[in-house]
Amino acid sequence: MISRDEFVSRFGGVFEHSQFIAERAYDDGFVGDELTVDRVHTALVAIFRAASPEERLGVLRAHPDLAGRLAIAGELTEDSKQEQAGAGLDRLSADEHARFTTLNTAYVEKFGFPFIIAVKGLNKDDILAAFETRIDNSRDEEFATATAQVERIALLRLTALLPER
Prior knowledge:
Elements (H helix, E strand, L loop, with lengths): L3 H8 L8 H8 L9 H14 L2 H9 L7 H5 L4 H9 L7 H18 L12 H11 L4 H23 L4
């Protein structure tokens, strides 16, 4: 069986800057000998869903703005950097970047956490359309949508780490 340190080292970043999820999954016995995408994702999601509302909000707040200041400064996690680049967010025009900045600011002011979307398979236009639609949601609707997106991002990241299902 994998050790706690090895499990946390390998899967602690699946939920952005929130290794407590992997630690608790291991400590609570959710991890078995078979490390498949489905099994690890189910374990991590169970811990995420059982976390307090404040902890889940912390996980949301750990995510970077899309095409935001961390991206410009080159301070994204490697996963976030690759995900945003895959959607073309590292190649925005000045006008597109200004639109993302305006939406990011308005979104964070309204909801208290950054706009989160699993960008794999999307392009900048898809992301902007989702942004402009979701900004009209209520806070409860958007909290639920953002947490579902975090779980999807975790699944995509695990699929890259554990290609078998």
